[in-house]
Structure formats: structure tokens, C-alpha cells
Amino acid sequence: MEENKNLTAERSLEIIRESIERSQRTITRNSALPMIWWGVCVVAFSFIIAYLWANHGGPVWNFLWFVMWIIGYAGEWLIAKRNETVPSTFVGKTIGQVWATFGIFCGTIGFIIGLVGGGILPMELIVSKNVFIVASITSVISLCFGIATTITGAVIKNRVIQICGVIAGLGGFFGALHFLDHRQLFVMAAVAVIGLVVPGVLIQLQNQK
Amino acid sequence: MFQPLDPLLHSELRLAVMSLLISAEEAEFPYIKEQTGATAGNLSVQIDKLSAAGYITVEKTFKGKRPCTICRVTPTGIKAFDDYVKTLKNYLEVGKKS
Fold first, then answer.
1. ipTM at complex level
2. Which domain holds residue B27?
3. Total count of domains within chain B
4. For residue B92, what is the domain's CATH number?
5. How confident is the model at residue A135 (pLDDT cuts 50, 70, 90)?
6. Residues of A in contact with B33 (CB under 8 A)
7. Which of A147, A203, B2, B55 has the lowest tally of Cβ within 10 angstroms?
């Protein structure tokens, strides 16, 4: 770009639009690989934990989700290092905060239920003795998952991600309620495919065009 | 009567730099260079002009052992950019009517 004193008003507005759009595209482009990576992690751990739960000692294997968080963050760090440097923007920060909130809520719920399940905390801490509830943590996490994906889609103005988020969230919420055993993890895997892998692959394909 | 356009912003490269910084809280020099397609020398000159006018701040720091230049838009820069866009719109509206 050169110094140009004869810029027309149209050309000036075009430069502004192009610059802002290009910056937006870079952020969207860089979100593809982390989405696919986290989706693959959730799918892989869902199957591993479901197998162990069904064949080797029950739901205690859910503690492996914490191992997944560590592996997931390590992988994301490597992806971020490989990706081009993206400036700190409101959009990028908002997406980061949405997923951090998701992680804190779901991680805390999982941790507390894990302590109750392991007999370290009393059952009465999470549910009264006189109340019988049919609840599945997978159902709640799927809903949070869907909400986070839908907000991400809204922030980066990507309709496909929004739709995937709605399907993953609502489908996972009701789908997981049908299974109280290890099969609820297959629902979790499906939620990860619809809510993370599919949008990530679609963005990646768009990038390659 | 047309309001004059801010001559500092009425340049392709400086306008592109300001547009990038308006949409970002801060950006590193290599990112701005890549996004604008400008040469390092030319970009440095234009950034210095924007900085001298108080439209942006330039922080020279280190990322590990490598030097790193971070640019941020200032409230004065945001106001100038806002005024520039408003004036542009005014030009276009008048152009359409005539």
C-alpha cells in the first residue's frame, strides 16, 4: 500500500471494510484446529472411559476426564504456537472466556460428583435423601457444551457453528437422559462430533478454498 | 460545505493500520505488516506518524529473546477514526443525492 492523497470516499470505506474483515477471517481460521483437536480428545476419551466403565470397574473411570483436560491444553498450546500470531481482540477474548467458563463449570461439577461418587463427600451434599432424581452429568455438560458452541458461532458470525451448537446442546441434553450407564458417553462423543469436529472441519475446508 | 478529511488518516496504509487496530485491542508489528502487505520500512514510517499524532501508542518489548513491537489505538485515535468515517459517509450521501 502506498501513500495516496487521491483516495476516493468509496475506496477509503473499502480499505476499512477489507482490513476489519481480514482480521476477522484470521481469528475464525485459527479457531478451526483447536475445535477439531478438542472434539477428537472428547470422542477418544468418551470411548476409552465407556469401555473401561463397562468392563473394568464402573463409573470411577470418569476421573480420566481430568487427564483429557491436561492433554487437551497441551495440544492447544502446541497448535497456538504453530498458528500465525493473532492480535488480542474483543472477539478472541470473548470466545476464550466463554470456553474457560464452560471448563470451570463443567470441571467443578464433575469434580464434586466425583468426590461424592468416591465416598469422600456425602451424597446429601448434592441431593436430599428424600428426593429421587433422574439426572445425568453428561446431559448437563452436553447442554453447556451446546451453549458454548452456539455463543462461539454467534460471536464469530458463523451460522453453521450456531446450528451445530443448538443440535449438540439440545440433542445431547435429552439424548443423555435416556442412558444412565456407560452408554451416555456415546452421546457425549456424538455431542463433541456435532459441536466441535464438524464446525472445525467446515471452517478448515473454507480456509483451503 | 464538506468537512475536510483528516489528512493523517487519508492514506491507504495508515487507514488500513488504524482499521486493524480499531478491531483489535493491540497488534504486533509482523501481524500488521502481513495484513497490510506493506514493507517493513514504509510501515515503520507510517506507524511513527500515527504515533506522533497520538492516534496510537507503540510499545517496544521482548517476546522471549526477540524484540517485539506492539501497537495500540488510543482514545484520540478512536475519536479521529470515528470522525473520519462520519465525514466519509457524509461525502457518499451528498454524492448519491447529486
1. 0.78
2. 12-97
3. 1
4. 1.10.10.10
5. low
6. none
7. B2
